[in-house]
Specification:
Shape: globular
Low-confidence stretches: none
Number of strands: 2
Structural class: alpha+beta
Radius of gyration: 14 Å
Mean pLDDT: 82
Helix content: 25-40%
Length: 83
Amino acid sequence: MRGEPDRALLPEEMRGDRAYVVRSLDDENEIITFHLTNLTRDDLMRLREALTKDLGQREQAMAEFVEWTGVSGIFEVVEEVKI
């Protein structure tokens, strides 16, 4: 399951960011991925617009492995709690 991203394919602004792939303890086929970035909202929207074609191609390549998508979108961290 572990694979290293091809950093040459990542936009410069995203290099050094963190992405996570997590798996349910109850169902090994239930997987969530998310990416944390420090980009501003404007920079993120501009980058997303520029990458729309590439994102669509990536989603198509993954489609055969995706049974359903529970949530998809861009979310803003409103609070970080250290425990």
